């Protein structure tokens, strides 16, 4: 009972933060954006918080939160990832300012086997400057297989920071179809969400949850789910 009330309160806080962002953007649109501060190309010395805030202002639904993940959330996600073998790749969707990317490297995944994908050109540029040995892709996860090209067949794990809760329904399903296409049988999808109690309704049935972790110290508190694809291999 107490736990259910805590969950309700946390969900309420999360939704209020989303709403405040939406309303403030509607009420205070920056008319000067085209030539202004928001349009400057970031460089590796731009503070991450500023880049994140700038993207929230531009595209709150795609960011889905007012805050980058905490190091605790990033490290907990990274620990859930099995070390890829010599052939396989880890793809990170919605890499943002790279907090999870850095945790994945720290976990021992080598830069050449990690591909961050980020839809914001500014954030992708920042990531490439900060992680020069990595192939950072600036693109929409909706076109995942096309963006990966031949590497598509080498993916074993997808780590996702995509804000599925705030993305439009058709986009959510389109991205999930791409994830399903790219992941091989037994492949893993690691996703975090601020929805602490809900189910991820957009997942195909053959994705089964095999692990869950809660990170209460993150703001907002988050749940990490590991899903395994039990689809049947085409070759039988
Ligand atoms: C909640 S933030 C997570 C950022 C970072 N991974 C973290 O944990 O702090 C979501 C990120 O997903 C990116 N994103 C949203 N929709 C996307 C899409 N369709 N394709 C690729 N990236 C997307 C946003 O630009 C943003 O950087």
Automatic annotation (TrEMBL):
It comes from the Bacteria. InterPro entries: SAM-dependent_MTases_sf. GO terms for biological process: methylation. Keywords: Methyltransferase, Transferase. One of its GO terms (molecular function) is methyltransferase activity. This is Ribosomal RNA adenine methylase transferase. It comes from Thioploca ingrica. The lineage of its organism: Bacteria, Pseudomonadati, Pseudomonadota, Gammaproteobacteria, Thiotrichales.
